[in-house]
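Ligand-bound model needed. flavin-adenine dinucleotide.
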Amino acid sequence: MTTQHTSHRKAAVIGAGQTGVTAALGLLDAGFTVTVYSDKDQRDLRDKVPATGTALIFGEAQAAEAALGLPTYLDRAPLHSGLTVRVAGGGEELIAFDGAFDGFHGLAVDTRLKADERLTTFLERGGRFVVDPVTPERLDPIAADNDLTLVATGRGGLSQLFEVDRTRTVYDAPQRSLLTVTVTGLPHDESVFAHRSPAGGGRSGFSIVAEEGEAWWGPYLHKDAGPTWAFLGWARPGGDWEKRFAAADSAESAHRIVTDLYRDYLDWDLPEVLATRVLSEDPHSWLKGAVRPLFRRGVGHTAGGHPVAALGDTAVAYDPIAGQGAQSGLIQAQRLVAAAATHDGAFDDAWITAEYEAFLEARAEDAAKVTRLFLSDPEFAEIGGQFFSAAAADPRFASALVGTLHRPQAARPVNSVADAHQLIAQVTGEDAAEVLARFRPAGRFSRSQYSAAAATA
Ligand SMILES: Cc1cc2nc3c(=O)[nH]c(=O)nc-3n(C[C@H](O)[C@H](O)[C@H](O)COP(=O)(O)OP(=O)(O)OC[C@H]3O[C@@H](n4cnc5c(N)ncnc54)[C@H](O)[C@@H]3O)c2cc1C
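Prediction:
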């Protein structure tokens, strides 16, 4: 039996990224005495590192934050009302659709801002913050001294303490190289990206160039500059984009590389890109790298045998193509806090493992599947082809497809083309063959007529 626990319990959270701090604040509010251990002080966490990622999150992840009583930034961030998608390949402009989000908005908040503000609240409410780059040796006495220890040190850090789950991990290497840069100079009104959607700057825009990779622009809340735009690009191994991304070594060079990419490959959006400017106040407004999608075991052990729980990127890492990492971490944090608040026994191997497995089943496995779908994984290529064609043919399916970023569980029953047709029929109320028969290749995408001068006049 579980009851609301009232006796005094102690928790440690290692890592003060947005996931760790969110869990720490939740545990504090649930009555735990909480210590956060961080390898950097609060100021350096905010100003001396890049954001971990774009961290665009949707309805379910916002609901997890709200369930913890935390601000969701819906009132501060520029909102995403949907996603416009364009697919080109073999020199052809093939597929275009505009998917509206149904009943939720997306928002991308600088991870440094969110972690910083939550850390401030944590300290105001009596949480303890210790600057200590925790080693595996240091972790042992910390875990011995606490009832529950969460390890949220990101993809590096102490993640090695948690064995890779080889049954759930399907890739042995990153699938894309990544480049991201945050910029200013573009408003968020209907004049921006109007050629992609009447909602203009309320949408984020995703373009696929089949041989090279993918490119995305979306509204963003930067820690200093406020409402801005973020670019995120994915380069396939061995392509021209990969070489270009590898050359980035500053915000300025990243911005130049992105501008040239749009000039050479994605000219339909070029006027907007030419209007953007680097954020001079933040030298860390860019990032390059790669993520190997990975599941780890939920429980690890210190040298002395104390169980510790993996949280956020330490537990599951996603390629960001479907925007699942930050969402997953926030949802996992909320579930762990809710479960810990009402658990009456020890936070032992069995408890940590059961909670983790339940989280994987409720969210992470589906999130990884949708990521594979958007990565054009060969196993899902045919299904993806049907989905994208149906989205181009029917706005209801476009909305359902972009809705999988919010509720990836919708993709759970889809494992074959027949399943894909069933989902298309369920969403549209029509036979999938009829929907797909309406699909016509885009031919030529509409080009932007955006004029920065007209927008500011
Ligand atoms: C390019 C890119 C774009 C992305 N876009 C999206 C998106 O659109 N939507 C989405 O949902 N997700 C996205 N993600 C994923 C998302 O950004 C991450 O999942 C999320 O920010 C991870 O947060 P975290 O707190 O788990 O880890 P981190 O942010 O990595 O935090 C870990 C913290 O632990 C600290 N630390 C490390 N080692 C130690 C130690 N030994 N002792 C103490 N402290 C330590 C680190 O300094 C850091 O502060 C993206 C990722 C990338 C790379």
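The chain is about 35% helix and 20% strand.
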